[in-house]
Amino acid sequence: MKQEVELYRELIDFCNEHQNEIEKKFKRLLTFTDFNVTCYKEMFWKQRRTSAPISVKELKEQIQGLTEIYKKEVPKCLGRRNEFLKGMDIQKGQWYEKALQMFLATKDIYVKKKGFPFPDFEVVSGNKVVAYYELKYIQVPFIYANTKIHNTYPYATSRYDYESSLTLDTGKKLQLQRTKIENDILPLGIPVYYVWWFDSFHIKGIFAMPVQEVFDYYNHLGNDQFTRKTREGDAIAHQEITKIYPPMLNMITFKEFITSLKQ
User: What are the structural domains of the chain?
Assistant: First the structure.
Protein backbone atom coordinates (compact mmCIF):
# COMPACT_ATOMS: atom_id res chain seq x y z
CA MET A 1 0.00 0.00 0.00
CA LYS A 2 2.93 2.34 0.59
CA GLN A 3 3.55 2.75 -3.13
CA GLU A 4 -0.11 3.57 -3.73
CA VAL A 5 -0.07 6.29 -1.08
CA GLU A 6 3.19 7.74 -2.38
CA LEU A 7 1.89 7.82 -5.95
CA TYR A 8 -1.34 9.59 -5.04
CA ARG A 9 0.55 12.05 -2.84
CA GLU A 10 2.83 12.70 -5.81
CA LEU A 11 -0.25 13.48 -7.90
CA ILE A 12 -1.60 15.87 -5.26
CA ASP A 13 1.73 17.68 -4.95
CA PHE A 14 1.98 17.94 -8.74
CA CYS A 15 -1.48 19.48 -8.98
CA ASN A 16 -0.83 22.02 -6.25
CA GLU A 17 2.53 22.99 -7.77
CA HIS A 18 1.17 23.39 -11.32
CA GLN A 19 -2.03 25.32 -10.65
CA ASN A 20 -1.39 27.94 -13.34
CA GLU A 21 -0.53 25.40 -16.01
CA ILE A 22 -3.69 23.43 -15.27
CA GLU A 23 -6.07 26.40 -15.20
CA LYS A 24 -5.33 30.00 -14.17
CA LYS A 25 -8.96 30.99 -13.65
CA PHE A 26 -10.11 27.97 -11.68
CA LYS A 27 -7.68 26.88 -9.00
CA ARG A 28 -8.03 23.97 -6.61
CA LEU A 29 -6.04 23.28 -3.47
CA LEU A 30 -5.93 19.52 -3.00
CA THR A 31 -5.31 17.76 0.31
CA PHE A 32 -4.35 14.25 1.35
CA THR A 33 -3.90 13.88 5.10
CA ASP A 34 -2.83 11.03 7.36
CA PHE A 35 -6.51 10.59 8.18
CA ASN A 36 -7.26 10.05 4.49
CA VAL A 37 -4.46 7.49 4.33
CA THR A 38 -6.01 5.59 7.24
CA CYS A 39 -9.42 5.68 5.55
CA TYR A 40 -7.88 4.40 2.31
CA LYS A 41 -6.27 1.55 4.21
CA GLU A 42 -9.25 0.49 6.31
CA MET A 43 -12.10 1.28 3.94
CA PHE A 44 -10.51 0.18 0.66
CA TRP A 45 -7.16 -1.60 0.83
CA LYS A 46 -8.04 -4.14 3.53
CA GLN A 47 -11.39 -4.90 1.91
CA ARG A 48 -10.37 -5.38 -1.71
CA ARG A 49 -12.43 -8.12 -3.40
CA THR A 50 -14.42 -8.73 -0.23
CA SER A 51 -17.80 -10.44 -0.42
CA ALA A 52 -19.27 -8.30 2.35
CA PRO A 53 -18.22 -4.65 2.89
CA ILE A 54 -17.89 -3.51 6.49
CA SER A 55 -20.66 -1.20 7.65
CA VAL A 56 -19.98 2.47 8.28
CA LYS A 57 -20.97 1.91 11.90
CA GLU A 58 -18.21 -0.66 12.34
CA LEU A 59 -15.68 1.52 10.55
CA LYS A 60 -16.46 4.41 12.88
CA GLU A 61 -15.38 2.17 15.75
CA GLN A 62 -12.12 1.29 13.97
CA ILE A 63 -11.02 4.65 12.57
CA GLN A 64 -10.31 7.46 14.99
CA GLY A 65 -12.02 10.67 13.93
CA LEU A 66 -14.38 9.06 11.40
CA THR A 67 -17.48 9.65 13.52
CA GLU A 68 -16.61 13.31 13.92
CA ILE A 69 -15.91 13.87 10.22
CA TYR A 70 -19.24 12.29 9.29
CA LYS A 71 -21.05 14.60 11.70
CA LYS A 72 -19.27 17.59 10.19
CA GLU A 73 -19.45 16.74 6.48
CA VAL A 74 -22.70 14.83 5.98
CA PRO A 75 -24.95 17.92 6.33
CA LYS A 76 -22.95 19.55 3.52
CA CYS A 77 -23.50 16.50 1.33
CA LEU A 78 -27.25 16.68 1.80
CA GLY A 79 -27.63 20.31 0.75
CA ARG A 80 -29.91 20.93 -2.21
CA ARG A 81 -28.10 21.19 -5.55
CA ASN A 82 -29.26 24.11 -7.70
CA GLU A 83 -29.29 24.96 -11.37
CA PHE A 84 -25.86 26.58 -11.25
CA LEU A 85 -24.03 23.54 -9.98
CA LYS A 86 -24.02 21.77 -13.34
CA GLY A 87 -21.67 24.41 -14.76
CA MET A 88 -19.45 24.11 -11.72
CA ASP A 89 -19.42 20.33 -12.09
CA ILE A 90 -18.25 20.66 -15.69
CA GLN A 91 -15.49 23.10 -14.73
CA LYS A 92 -14.31 20.83 -11.94
CA GLY A 93 -14.36 17.81 -14.18
CA GLN A 94 -12.31 19.55 -16.85
CA TRP A 95 -9.78 20.71 -14.26
CA TYR A 96 -9.20 17.17 -13.00
CA GLU A 97 -9.12 15.77 -16.52
CA LYS A 98 -6.32 18.15 -17.49
CA ALA A 99 -4.48 17.64 -14.20
CA LEU A 100 -4.42 13.86 -14.64
CA GLN A 101 -3.44 14.21 -18.29
CA MET A 102 -0.47 16.42 -17.36
CA PHE A 103 0.57 14.11 -14.52
CA LEU A 104 0.48 11.03 -16.74
CA ALA A 105 2.83 12.82 -19.15
CA THR A 106 5.43 12.90 -16.35
CA LYS A 107 5.22 9.09 -16.41
CA ASP A 108 5.73 9.01 -20.20
CA ILE A 109 2.04 8.29 -20.75
CA TYR A 110 0.62 10.61 -23.38
CA VAL A 111 -3.07 11.29 -23.64
CA LYS A 112 -5.20 13.01 -26.29
CA LYS A 113 -8.80 14.18 -26.05
CA LYS A 114 -11.12 12.06 -28.18
CA GLY A 115 -14.62 12.83 -29.38
CA PHE A 116 -17.85 10.94 -28.69
CA PRO A 117 -18.78 8.11 -29.16
CA PHE A 118 -15.20 7.19 -28.31
CA PRO A 119 -14.23 7.31 -24.63
CA ASP A 120 -13.03 10.80 -23.71
CA PHE A 121 -9.30 10.07 -23.67
CA GLU A 122 -6.99 8.16 -25.98
CA VAL A 123 -3.62 6.94 -24.71
CA VAL A 124 -0.96 6.84 -27.41
CA SER A 125 2.55 5.43 -27.72
CA GLY A 126 4.22 6.72 -30.87
CA ASN A 127 1.54 6.40 -33.54
CA LYS A 128 -0.18 3.53 -31.77
CA VAL A 129 -3.32 3.73 -29.62
CA VAL A 130 -2.72 1.63 -26.51
CA ALA A 131 -5.79 2.40 -24.37
CA TYR A 132 -8.84 4.59 -23.83
CA TYR A 133 -10.35 5.90 -20.62
CA GLU A 134 -13.09 8.12 -19.25
CA LEU A 135 -12.52 10.08 -16.05
CA LYS A 136 -15.22 10.92 -13.53
CA TYR A 137 -14.54 13.28 -10.61
CA ILE A 138 -16.51 12.47 -7.47
CA GLN A 139 -16.40 14.61 -4.35
CA VAL A 140 -19.69 13.96 -2.57
CA PRO A 141 -20.32 10.40 -1.34
CA PHE A 142 -23.73 8.75 -1.74
CA ILE A 143 -24.63 9.00 1.94
CA TYR A 144 -27.87 7.02 1.72
CA ALA A 145 -26.45 4.22 -0.42
CA ASN A 146 -27.30 1.58 2.19
CA THR A 147 -31.02 2.38 1.92
CA LYS A 148 -31.31 3.61 -1.68
CA ILE A 149 -29.38 0.92 -3.58
CA HIS A 150 -31.71 -2.09 -3.49
CA ASN A 151 -29.86 -4.40 -5.87
CA THR A 152 -26.63 -4.88 -3.92
CA TYR A 153 -24.85 -7.05 -6.50
CA PRO A 154 -22.08 -8.23 -6.23
CA TYR A 155 -22.80 -8.39 -2.50
CA ALA A 156 -25.48 -10.17 -0.53
CA THR A 157 -25.16 -7.46 2.11
CA SER A 158 -25.79 -3.70 1.97
CA ARG A 159 -23.87 -1.18 -0.10
CA TYR A 160 -22.27 1.74 1.76
CA ASP A 161 -21.39 5.29 0.77
CA TYR A 162 -17.62 4.85 0.91
CA GLU A 163 -17.59 2.02 -1.66
CA SER A 164 -20.60 2.82 -3.83
CA SER A 165 -20.19 6.50 -4.65
CA LEU A 166 -18.27 6.08 -7.89
CA THR A 167 -21.25 6.68 -10.11
CA LEU A 168 -21.79 6.23 -13.81
CA ASP A 169 -24.73 7.80 -15.63
CA THR A 170 -26.72 5.45 -17.82
CA GLY A 171 -28.91 6.32 -20.76
CA LYS A 172 -28.50 6.89 -24.48
CA LYS A 173 -24.93 8.22 -24.26
CA LEU A 174 -23.68 5.15 -22.43
CA GLN A 175 -25.49 2.83 -24.82
CA LEU A 176 -23.98 4.49 -27.90
CA GLN A 177 -20.55 4.52 -26.32
CA ARG A 178 -20.85 0.88 -25.33
CA THR A 179 -21.70 -0.06 -28.92
CA LYS A 180 -18.61 1.79 -30.16
CA ILE A 181 -16.37 0.18 -27.55
CA GLU A 182 -17.61 -3.38 -28.05
CA ASN A 183 -17.75 -3.23 -31.84
CA ASP A 184 -14.73 -1.15 -32.78
CA ILE A 185 -12.24 -0.93 -29.89
CA LEU A 186 -12.17 -4.11 -27.82
CA PRO A 187 -11.92 -6.39 -30.92
CA LEU A 188 -8.60 -4.65 -31.66
CA GLY A 189 -7.27 -5.71 -28.27
CA ILE A 190 -7.22 -2.12 -26.98
CA PRO A 191 -8.21 -1.88 -23.29
CA VAL A 192 -10.77 0.66 -22.12
CA TYR A 193 -11.23 1.87 -18.55
CA TYR A 194 -13.66 3.92 -16.56
CA VAL A 195 -11.63 5.92 -14.05
CA TRP A 196 -12.84 7.76 -10.97
CA TRP A 197 -11.01 10.44 -9.01
CA PHE A 198 -12.57 10.11 -5.56
CA ASP A 199 -11.94 13.21 -3.46
CA SER A 200 -14.25 12.69 -0.52
CA PHE A 201 -13.90 13.63 3.12
CA HIS A 202 -12.79 10.09 3.97
CA ILE A 203 -11.30 8.20 1.00
CA LYS A 204 -9.19 9.96 -1.60
CA GLY A 205 -7.63 8.24 -4.58
CA ILE A 206 -7.78 7.19 -8.22
CA PHE A 207 -9.73 4.01 -8.97
CA ALA A 208 -10.34 2.29 -12.31
CA MET A 209 -12.33 -0.58 -13.74
CA PRO A 210 -12.05 -2.24 -17.17
CA VAL A 211 -15.17 -1.62 -19.24
CA GLN A 212 -15.90 -5.34 -19.47
CA GLU A 213 -16.37 -5.45 -15.70
CA VAL A 214 -18.45 -2.27 -15.69
CA PHE A 215 -20.72 -3.65 -18.41
CA ASP A 216 -20.99 -6.98 -16.59
CA TYR A 217 -22.11 -5.12 -13.46
CA TYR A 218 -24.59 -3.12 -15.56
CA ASN A 219 -25.97 -6.32 -17.13
CA HIS A 220 -26.54 -7.90 -13.72
CA LEU A 221 -28.60 -4.90 -12.62
CA GLY A 222 -30.89 -5.02 -15.63
CA ASN A 223 -33.61 -2.44 -15.07
CA ASP A 224 -32.87 -2.26 -11.36
CA GLN A 225 -30.90 0.99 -11.52
CA PHE A 226 -31.03 3.92 -9.14
CA THR A 227 -33.02 6.93 -10.34
CA ARG A 228 -32.28 10.13 -8.49
CA LYS A 229 -34.85 12.87 -7.95
CA THR A 230 -35.01 15.51 -10.65
CA ARG A 231 -33.41 18.87 -9.90
CA GLU A 232 -34.06 22.40 -11.03
CA GLY A 233 -30.91 22.34 -13.14
CA ASP A 234 -32.12 19.36 -15.18
CA ALA A 235 -34.40 21.68 -17.14
CA ILE A 236 -31.48 23.88 -18.19
CA ALA A 237 -28.98 21.27 -19.33
CA HIS A 238 -29.84 17.66 -20.11
CA GLN A 239 -28.67 15.43 -17.30
CA GLU A 240 -29.14 11.69 -16.92
CA ILE A 241 -30.96 10.73 -13.74
CA THR A 242 -30.50 6.95 -13.86
CA LYS A 243 -27.22 5.75 -12.44
CA ILE A 244 -25.21 2.69 -11.56
CA TYR A 245 -22.63 2.38 -8.80
CA PRO A 246 -19.82 -0.03 -9.71
CA PRO A 247 -18.20 -1.50 -6.59
CA MET A 248 -15.04 0.41 -5.69
CA LEU A 249 -13.69 -2.55 -3.74
CA ASN A 250 -13.41 -4.50 -7.01
CA MET A 251 -11.53 -1.74 -8.81
CA ILE A 252 -7.85 -1.51 -9.64
CA THR A 253 -5.61 1.05 -7.96
CA PHE A 254 -3.94 4.13 -9.42
CA LYS A 255 -0.61 2.33 -9.64
CA GLU A 256 -2.19 -0.68 -11.32
CA PHE A 257 -3.93 1.61 -13.79
CA ILE A 258 -0.68 3.35 -14.72
CA THR A 259 1.08 0.00 -15.06
CA SER A 260 -1.64 -1.24 -17.40
CA LEU A 261 -1.18 1.81 -19.64
CA LYS A 262 2.51 1.03 -20.03
CA GLN A 263 2.08 -2.61 -21.04
Answer: 2-262 (3.40.1350.10)
